[in-house]
Amino acid sequence: MADITLAPATVGYGLGASIKSRLVAGETLAPGQVVYLKASDKKYWLADNTTLATATVFGIVLSAAVADTPTTVLTAGMLRDSSAPFTEGKSYELSTTSGGIAPAGDAGSTDFGTGIGFATSSSELFVAICNSGGQVA
User: Fold this and answer.
1) Global pTM value
2) Which of 114, 132, 22 is nearest to 68 (CA)?
3) Cα separation of 2 and 26, whole Å?
4) 28 vs 4, 69, 98, CA distance in Å?
5) Distance CA 66, CA 4 (A)
6) DSSP code, position 4
7) pLDDT tens digit at each of 137 positions of the chain
8) Under 8 Å CB-to-CB from 89, ≥6 apart: which residues?
């Protein structure tokens, strides 16, 4: 299956979400994209499941940013997107595409498995990041 498409203009969060602010972007980031913390520069970059480092997810971007400017990231709790990109009851994982989210089960045999969360409705994803550190068998 293809990655889900989040609409940056309609991405938000729900009550009780864990939010981290004033994080420095390493590149251009848009709401709804998945990021990791790059150890060498302590900035947040688009995550993908192709290497252990880039598959170690920190969270999902809530505020747009360009390189070297602050952003806000949801690390756990309810992510909302009123454009309704989710399938209720479905689990989602990190994609091979930089910053992308894919339906669970899309990772290939050399990809690193990173769970992002599960859909509680068509417009809400309960984010519970699981950085497995292992490659898909």
Assistant:
1) 0.95
2) 22
3) 26
4) 19, 9, 12
5) 23
6) P
7) 689 999 999 999 998 999 999 999 999 999 999 999 999 999 999 999 999 999 999 999 999 999 999 999 999 999 999 999 999 999 999 999 999 999 998 777 789 999 999 999 999 999 999 998 888 87
8) 118, 119
9: helix, strand or coil: helix
**Rounded Cα–Cα distance for residues 78 and 74 (Å):** 9
Residue 67 CB neighbours (<10 A): 12
Per-position DSSP letters for 76-127, written without gaps between them: EEEEEETT----TT-EEEE-SSTT-EEETT---TTSEEEEEEEEEETTEEEE
Residue 76 corresponds to which amino acid? A
